[in-house]
Amino acid sequence: MNKNFVNKNFGGGPNFSRRRIAAGLVIVLAMGACDSTEQGHVKGVTGHLPDLSFSLTSDKGQPVTAKTYEGKVLLMYFGFTHCREECPISMARLMRVMHLLGADADRAHILFVTVDPNRDAPGELRRYLMQFDIEQATGLTGSPDEIGRLAKRYRNAYRPHFPPGGDGDIMHGDAVYIFDTQGRARLLATSADPEETLAQDLRDLLPA
Amino acid sequence: MEWFYWLVPWEESILVVAATGSAALFFLRGCAVARPWLHRKLCFWGGLSLVYLVSHTQLDYYSQHQFFIHRLQHLALHHLGPFLIILSRPCPVLLGGMPSRMRQAFHLMAGWKPVQYLAHILCNPVVAVTLFSMLIGFWLLPSIHFTAMIDWRLYRVMNWSMFLSGLIFWGLVLTPGPVRLSPGSRIGMMLAIIPPQIVIGAIIFFTSHELYPIYTICGRAIGGINALADQQIGGIILWIHGAMMSAVGILVVILRELMLAEYPKNGQKVA
């Protein structure tokens, strides 16, 4: 048998148990206390998500890129017109945010990117968005791969190819990706953020 | 060809391909020289393919978009994968399979003072246990987890740090290795990582609100599982399965010591 069976670090001495308790306490306290979201503000993602870049077709049937919307604060949302749950609620919320922005709404723009490109043709998207009565909104469509690349770039759960045997359910999150006037990702809004907070944070992104 | 779909990487990483590819190549070449036992080969290939499959296939999509699958991915990257790789005692085989210049470079590097200091610190039992446990807690802090899941660079740092800390930890405790820790201290180290995992797993399981909203924000991969159920399954995986690996490790060490005591010549074969 090894003579050093009782090692100085792990002989069950006071150091060992104290360290374990201390480590446990640190973890518990850190997990309980840590949430960096400032109260009253939308989650900031500056530097963590890439700049906006896409090449898709607008709801007017024209090819558009991120450059088309340069100079505007952009709110990008992934959804589809046949969605009966999250999408209408999210779009209604964004409509209210635009109303709250008042005159500043002209300097902001909503991009509704369809995750059902096979059914959502430009005309379909146009009709859908007209229901919400927002001028500053554009529907975007493209090939499933193009939209898949954009969704993956922003860690959205949509993917264009389903696994063999899968039921083909369309998965997408309720995230609103917010970009500043230069196309840099700045905020990640969710359904939990109040519209007033979102409107205020959007104003802060607008150049004076 | 349906199975091929699952092998297509969700996000390509040259580093993962290069690391697993060269490890596989060196091990194959080394096998011709060192002729390791079959169970060592099985352990190595099992561990390496597990690590590759969870980090460089469509499974990565599910890990990014479902909390409990993310926990399973880390169970493979931090526990089971490195555990199996270390169990195969791959160092002599890998070194044997390397081109001679690379082997010389490794020997040269091992002589450098800064490398020796770093190895000395990382191989300290207290540091290894703390690093192993703290990394689990660190990446599960809600705000850190949020950022790691949206920033692809941080996501890769997270997965690599888990795998490397797993390699260091299991490398120290499963085999006597170059540090020559006694079996008692190695068993002590495996016992020491159990309480932090139980505490973190239990906190996640018993929290009644959503700790990790990022999965709801970006969308979940599997429909029909709500946020809290996903979180609770993830907590249970950490709580029970993470801690269970220690029990397996302790059995391996005890078995090896018994074999060494009874059959000093054949004991080396175990573990």
UniProtKB/TrEMBL annotation, chain A:
Keyword presence, Disulfide bond: yes
Record-linked InterPro entries: SCO1/SenC, Thioredoxin-like_sf
Pfam families in the cross-refs: SCO1-SenC (PF02630)
Entries under CDD domains matching the protein: SCO (cd02968)
Disulfide bonds: C83-C87
Alphabetic keyword roster: Copper, Disulfide bond, Metal-binding
GO molecular function (one): metal ion binding
Protein origin, superkingdom: Bacteria
Sequence positions that bind Cu cation: C83, C87, H172
PANTHER family xrefs: ELECTRON TRANSPORT PROTIN SCO1/SENC FAMILY MEMBER, LINALOOL DEHYDRATASE_ISOMERASE DOMAIN-CONTAINING PROTEIN
Family named by the database record: Belongs to the SCO1/2 family.
Protein name: Protein SCO1/2
Organism: Nitrosospira multiformis
Phylogenetic placement of the source organism: Bacteria, Pseudomonadati, Pseudomonadota, Betaproteobacteria, Nitrosomonadales
From TrEMBL, chain B:
Localization of this protein: Cell membrane
Pfam families: Caa3_CtaG
Keyword Oxidoreductase: no
Coiled-coil annotated residue ranges, if any: none
Membrane topology summary: Multi-pass membrane protein
Transmembrane segments: 13-30, 42-59, 79-97, 117-141, 153-175, 187-206, 236-255
UniProt entry tagged with the keyword Nucleus: no
Keyword annotations from UniProtKB, A to Z: Cell membrane, Membrane, Transmembrane, Transmembrane helix
A GO CC term assigned to this protein in UniProt: plasma membrane
Protein's recorded name: Putative membrane protein
Species in which this protein is naturally found: Nitrosospira multiformis
